[in-house]
């Protein structure tokens, strides 16, 4: 499970914070509108590549659907 929060929105990019299992420090995922690239700019402290990949894919989905929720709980179980 990841907690996601929209941190910043600009005309050319947006940033989401993500927190695996609701513990530890938050990581950051950025989506760039110009080139369509999504990347992790800061990994969460309680992370695994599993949590990173899920956060990355969800942020890409938000961008494709043009729907950027302020908060989102991402569960895959």
Description:
There is one protein chain. By secondary structure, the chain is α+β, with helices and mostly antiparallel strands. It has one domain. The chain is built from 1 helix and 5 strands, in the order ββββαβ. Strands 4-3-2-1-5 form a 5-stranded antiparallel beta sheet, with helices on one face. Strand 2 and strand 3 (27-32) form a beta hairpin. The protein is globular and about 30 Å long. The model has no long low-confidence stretch (mean pLDDT 93).
Short synopsis of the structure:
With 77 residues, the protein is of the alpha+beta class. 22% of the residues lie in helices and 42% in strands.
Work out the helix count.
1
Form type: globular
What is the alpha-carbon Rg in Å? Answer: 11 Å
* Total beta-strand segments: 5
Number of domains: 1
The largest pleated sheet is described as: 5 strands, antiparallel
- How much helix, percentage-wise, in residues? 10-25%
- Quaternary state reads single chain
In terms of per-residue confidence, which ranges show pLDDT below 50 for 5 or more consecutive residues?
Answer: none
Structural class: alpha+beta
Distance between the termini: 8 Å
How would the blueprint of this fold be written?
Elements: E1 2-9, E2 13-20, E3 27-32, E4 37-42, H1 49-65, E5 71-74
List keywords for this structure.
77 residues, alpha+beta, five-stranded antiparallel β-sheet, 22% helix
């Amino acid at each position: 499970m990841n907690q996601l929060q929209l941190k910043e929105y600009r005309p050319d990019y947006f940033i989401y914070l993500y927190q695996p299992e609701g513990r530890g420090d938050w990581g950051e995922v950025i989506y760039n509108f110009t080139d369509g690239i999504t990347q992790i700019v800061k990994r969460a402290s309680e992370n695994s590549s599993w949590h990173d990949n899920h956060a990355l894919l969800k942020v890409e989905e938000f961008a494709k659907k043009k729907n950027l929720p302020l908060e989102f709980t991402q569960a895959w179980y």
